[in-house]
Amino acid sequence: MNGLLIGRFQPFHLGHLDALKFALSKVEYLWVGLGSSNKPIQKNNPFSAEERKIMITDSLDYSLKKRIKIYPIPDLENHIKWIELIDTIVPKFDLVFTNDDLTRHLYSKRNVKTISIPFTRREILSGTNIRNMIISDQNWLELVPEGTRNLLTNIHVKDRLTGL
Fold it and tell me: What pLDDT is attached to residue 38?
């Protein structure tokens, strides 16, 4: 059985890692969609699709990595067309992992089962919070896996975020 999980991962953090592990406990293979892949680098989307892919793959051990495939998913203004576009990008899937009500509704109309993802420390583990912590020189390093930490350090993340 295959599953689909779409997120922006701006940046990929420990809550996202827990979500991937949760999804993998339910399916054999997981297609991970990098949402907003067509958006330019901007304040709310400061990392490219390629950077986010590296964050994810460099944060996974081999046993997880071999069960995940990552696909860029561009945003569209029309949600129905967006769902149809996803079908052309990712292989067949049986489950969608989402906490988004609209995504849940659209897939339920297509008779695709959706499963909610348990949140891990949501008040702390959010991309917005982590980006704000980076900008304000708070300790954010413990909130992201090693692969994310390495990429963000290499790109001088604070300089990027303060420049947007």
Answer: 96
Q: Measured between alpha carbons, how far is 6 from 4 in angstroms, rounded to an integer?
A: 7
Question: Going edge to edge, which strands form the sheet with 2-7?
Answer: 68-73, 29-35, 2-7, 95-97, 113-115
Q: What is the pLDDT of residues 72-102, one digit of tens each?
A: 999 999 999 999 999 999 999 999 999 999 9
Give residue limits of the domains in the chain.
Answer: 2-162
Q: Is 127 helix (H, G, I), strand (E, B) or coil?
A: helix
67, burial (CB in 10 Å: exposed 0-12, middle 13-18, buried 19+): middle
Cis check: omega of the bond before 118, within 30 degrees of 0: no
Provide the CATH number for the domain formed by 2-162 in this structure: 3.40.50.620
Burial state string for 133-156 with b = 16 or more CB within 10 A and e = fewer than 16: ebeeeeebeebbbebbbebbeeee
Q: Rounded mean pLDDT of 122-127? A: 95
